[in-house]
Specification:
Elements lengths: L3 H25 L8 H22 L1 E5 L13 E6 L5 E2 L6 E3 L9 E5 L7 E8 L4 E5 L2 E4 L2 E2 L2 E7 L2 E11 L2 E8 L7 E4 L4 E5 L9 H4 L2 E2 L3 E11 L11 E2 L2
Membrane topology: Multi-pass membrane protein
GO molecular function: signal peptidase activity
Protein name: Signal peptidase I
Length: 245
């Protein structure tokens, strides 16, 4: 699988070398001396590629939602923006933290590198912080022994096999789905230091921390905050421009 981030770094480095070479050459020769096509292309692309690399690595990165594990919050075909600055600045490719900025909070919808396969990106909701005791029993989430407030909103309009509910994590409410024939298996775990417990809003149709464990801090990419496009066989105008809660 092609690592786009690594490719972007390599292309930026090559075009940057060409740009520096051209600057040195122009000092030694006439500014209007002819240049080859490749030198002209490299020096022209370098500023643009550098801006893209910096913005994508440290500020905002776009992602596409590939599945329904975060329904009803996010649908397959949603194109979202992720704030990469809020959890600290990390170097591209190595992902080493160079400037701590803020900490993830319960309820954040986050993109992260899937722990069993870091080359793959996942998106879920943080429900447990380091040190929390997370319990899931009778399809009800509890954090540190306290059941999370939950309210029924009736059947989901898009599929009556699902019940639509909303729950409150800390001070924020969000909607979630439970399938009529969903698994009622319980779960309880303590979140290790430096790691986070994540779950999908489509509780019975999500592969998350209940099955493969917690997410290390250095695997977090950023917080999802905006749907800028939604396309699944055609545009879904009602979802475009929505804030992600």
């Amino acid at each position: 699988m092609l690592d786009f981030e690594l490719l972007l770094v390599v292309v930026t480095a090559i075009s940057g070398i060409i740009w520096v070479y051209d600057r040195i050459r122009r000092r030694r020769r006439a500014a209007d001396a002819p240049v080859s096509y490749w030198v002209d292309l490299g020096r022209s692309l370098f500023p643009v590629i550098l801006i893209v690399l910096v913005a994508r690595s440290f500020v905002i990165e776009p992602f596409r939602i590939p599945s329904g594990s975060m329904l009803p919050t996010l649908e397959s075909g949603d194109f979202i923006l992720v704030n990469k600055f809020g959890y600290g600045l990390r170097l591209p490719v190595s992902h080493q933290l160079i400037a701590p900025v803020g900490d993830p909070e319960r309820g954040d919808v986050v993109v992260f590198r899937y722990p069993p396969n870091p080359g793959q990106d996942y998106i879920k909701r943080i429900v447990g912080l380091p040190g929390d005791r997370i319990t899931y029993a009778n399809r009800r989430l509890s954090i540190n022994g306290r059941p999370v407030p939950m309210e029924s909103l009736g059947e989901w309009a898009k599929d009556d096999a699902f019940a639509l509910l909303r729950e409150r994590i800390d001070d924020d409410w969000h909607e979630l789905l439970l399938h009529r024939n969903g698994n009622r298996r319980g779960f309880s775990a303590r979140v290790p230091e430096g790691e986070y417990f994540v779950m999908g809003d489509n509780r019975d149709r999500s592969s998350d921390s209940r099955f493969w464990g917690t997410v290390p801090r250095d695997h977090l990419v950023g917080e999802a905050f905006f749907i800028w496009l939604s396309w699944n066989g055609g545009p879904n105008w009602s979802r475009m421009g929505q804030r992600i809660d």
